[in-house]
Model the fold of this input.
Amino acid sequence: METFLKMIKRSYKLIENGLKYCRIKSVIEIEKMWRDRMATIYDVTKESWILSTFPEWGTYLNEEIEQEEVKAGTVSMWWLGCTGIWLKSHEGTNILCDLWCGTGKRTHGNGKMKKGHQMMRMSGCENMQPNLRTQPFVIDPFAVKDVDALVVTHIHSDHLDINTAAAVHQNCPKARFIGPKEVVNTWLKWGIPEEKTTIVKPGDRLSINDVDIVALEAFDRTALVTCEDPEVILKGKLPQDMDEIAVNYLFETSGGNIYHAGDSHYSNLFAKHGNEHKIDVCLGAYGENPRGITDKVTSVDMLRMAESLNANVVIPVHYDIWANFMADPKEITEIWKFKKDRLDYQFKPFIWQVGGKFTYPNDKDKLEFNFYRGFDDVFTRENDTPFPSFL
Done:
């Protein structure tokens, strides 16, 4: 494109003197004409490919969320990948939680893990973990609108994302930035104005329009062994204060209450939360842990979490995003079927898809999500085939 513009500028006098394009008033108009013509392989660059392809869903989901009218007595949410969700209430409040717009490994590098990484601290490993991102980007963060609050559960970078923070700050000037102390400190380092932030700790309650957000204890033991300084030794020392680096959330809406467990491992204290709060839907960080690693909640403990929380629906998330932690969520469904009658489970699992919508209570009895398949209007007009039985 740059070379073409230089050529155009050099020949601009010829254009002015009566060639085909003499009616064009500026190089900008010529550039537009160039863009509008049929492209050739000589126009394609890595940069043009990226801009024309990513995010893979463009603004399709942004538009769906914006146009969705949540009915009275319900609450809708969309899975954005990892543990990211968009929650929308009947009253029109939009809460964005844990949206991650980054990526995992992109090169083999030297084959070694970054010194001081939490997985290295946890297990004593040295080799690089192959944590490739396995999901497309289903939402355009820089096209988000009307976000009332960006809420983040904890300090890990696949939940606390600079791209999301920048997009929400730029597009939604009234949005609140809500998280535990160290999450907020990171936002401040990135340039988010302090007056837009709110630090929460377990027991805090705040309102974003009609939605009440309750901060609760988190049980993310991986966060406790996360330390930015690779020279710091954690062995033999008291752990960090969990309340400053991670919290779980309960979103109380007029259509139902959504419990977001962030990256919490299973804890007996889930039962305490279930005693103290009405929980309709719970989301947990499910996955298959590699040998020597405990970072995700397994299928059995997903069911235990739902039972302890007295939830009506349990939804596994996070298993979708990392190549080396992927798991089959139908394992949860099959174990639930095996146990539900004997243990008298009062909840159901729901297997979601990234980019899909879940509405409570409408979808509470569904076991699995499927995208709208289209073609409702087949044969509303005469089809065009060589002969009637062609298909």
About this structure: The longest strand covers residues 75-81. The chain has two domains: 2-51, 75-360. The first helix runs from residue 2 to 10.
